[in-house]
């Protein structure tokens, strides 16, 4: 699912030149009004660069929403010789930031009156938002304050904005807010949000601080929370805090008059009305607090939650951003009784809900797209998600828990206090969280052929995800990848549906028991089988999304092919009790049905008919990211088509208000039945009850200390080791010896970001040290041998015994990584040069770190050992473990390794099959390979057939494995089409339990190798 970067505010701020003003500890000396302090002159003194470097950078809801900036020499520049110019065409949100380097101190603006700059007006009447960041530990963990001006003039004009005009942002705060006080003593700079809609251009110059601060200093009254849940009969306590700009004592008294008024609770019946005044006298210290108590009354009746707004009128200071609201918790209603069966609780709650409340439960928004936190209650939202890279600030376990708890608190202000279900794409560990344990991507897990490993990696992921307050994971991907040109091929366990099915033990790792009884535990999450169905089979060139070539395209199959290849893994997932299913962006063109390509989000025959009907799926179906927008027709048509097709919850990241209203309209118009809505909401509520969210909506952080722990990283290290596939090992140069002098080169030897791939910290991932972990180079160095490292192989090669060249891809995901969309399967020129130089100078092992096979072509003869390392995650020590022989190579190819791109698509079972390495290929080390040729194969065949008849899977697999190792040794490097076909078929037969036939096909490959 496509994922945005963070919304503007999560990335705002600022590079500032050092300020010249100095302040005494108790009586700051304001800067003279005639001596402004420049923040930015746009003369080139600050580069275009993101944090942690000092610089100006752009952002937006997607790549197209980011403005293009440049410094332009202008004869009419108001300040200096250059101005900042830019063009923009913003559909969602976009703008630019001027930000400090991460290690720069904050700046003190408290001596100044405000911020001003020159703006070249276009006279278009558009609002331009200006934002500053205050307090916190750095610009990404500060408080956001905003204002705007109107471009209703032409030519240059100086815009002056007093700090008193900036208001605390209520729609988003990166750390959930700090103290709601514009202190001005720890400032991180400014950002400009450009208007959405019609594109345009702008020019800006001379940003500076001006004037001298008002000696009286502005005061603010804040409350401890916007929502105060309280049990019936208890008293709610609201804390009022006075704070001042610069933290100086107040020069004048501040009064706060309060009274309970409005809401759904009845005064005198549900609570005792209160009214009064709190006074903060002149000279009150900043940070002083007072409390107001609101008693509630117990009447013993069963009731939904009721609200008691507390209206505050502040004199002498700025009021809170929101009036606080007391919520008397729902009580004595059957759905709240955890002792009742889930089905009974669901039925009771559903019977009480309005159509609008039901529609809200079917709505999922991106957390950073909320226009205000109160929208959670106002629209009764059922779910929020973090897209790839959509993280709290700071991006820590505590930051996640605090953010999600704040969202859950807002849900307490609804009638039935239905908790949110929060979801993330934790596709190889809790990959959005810095410091989490990052596993190999699924293609590497498939290479391990180890179902227990798949389970264990899922269990670690679940534990780390749930410990941050997230109960729902959009994983695993059960796609069967059929074309290596696909940009998300590495999200698949492999090209064989039998292999994918064997790895679905990951569902139990994530969820626990098949009946869902473990879901309430603090180390389990709801899993999602995606993307239903056929996303791995789209035809190259069939995509119509952006510049994608294959992702989100069309899967053209017969019904038999659909059943055998793409549907089979979903029946396994349903049998394992998977809680949710996500349809694919792609279209299905089913031969003979006369419909042509139809988007999966509209295929009622597949979702209602096959998934929910024939397969018996009883969880709920969640759409992909804004996927209903790709359906033909208008928004109303998209809503009714998708919901009627069987979608239960719709991921509408930014359009949550519109979707909810439209769904209500469609039901009232009779185009969507309320019965269909009730079915959807029942399914959603069932999972919320099973997860225990009604009893514990807030984060259980008891497992947070295990996030990124040695215990968890040990699982990831084992996964990295088992995922390595040894394709060639001429002369047995692997395993390495610590006595050898090692020469290490290549672009991916010492790059953790490349090693972890896409879906790591951000949606697309990125190169570099993006999260804690160990690179392959670091793993090799820790192994005890003498290592020389030269990324480009420019260092002298003489005197070394063995070279290790680690090459491959840089991160990408989804259609952005499609071959033909700026990508191919060739090694880069730099990687090719490194391989050529090192392998010409010494014995060499080449490791390919990539999400799919790379074409090695004629270089294979010059390479002594070739390893498919896939994307091994954060634990490079695991790769070193097999290279140095602490563990054996045991991995096998989960996909066919082609000779050329012209062969694609190429898969096990194809009539024409002549790959460089067949599906299932994988040499071993530290293992005695059976000898005896045909005679041994005959004996193994008899044993395999007997094991098959007896249902002795362990013995059957062992016999086939011995036969495979024998045949591989006989084949050596002479892989022909006649050999490859039966060899690959044998691994498929092994996975389907046909052990005798598997050995027979291996014997056939052996005979073909003998000519």
Describe the 3D structure.
Strand 22, helix 4 (397-411) and strand 23 form a beta-alpha-beta unit. The protein starts with 36 loop residues before the first strand and ends with a helix. Mean pLDDT is 93; it is low at 1-34. It is of the alpha/beta class and 1011 residues long. The chain contains 22 helices and 37 strands.
Outline:
globular
SS summary, helix count: 22
Between the first and last Cα atoms, what is the distance in angstroms? 49 Å
- Segments where pLDDT lies below 50 for 5+ residues? 1-34
Main beta-sheet strand count, sense and barrel state: 6 strands, antiparallel
Helicity, in percent?
25-40%
Secondary-structure content class: alpha/beta
Assembly type: single chain
Report the sheet-strand fraction.
15-25%
Task: Describe the structure concisely for a colleague.
This protein is an alpha/beta fold.
Q: Tags for this entry?
A:
alpha/beta, single chain, 37 strands, six-stranded antiparallel β-sheet, EC 3.2.1.21, 25% helix, cellulase activity, beta-glucosidase, globular, disordered N terminus, 1011 residues, Glyco_hydro_3_N_sf
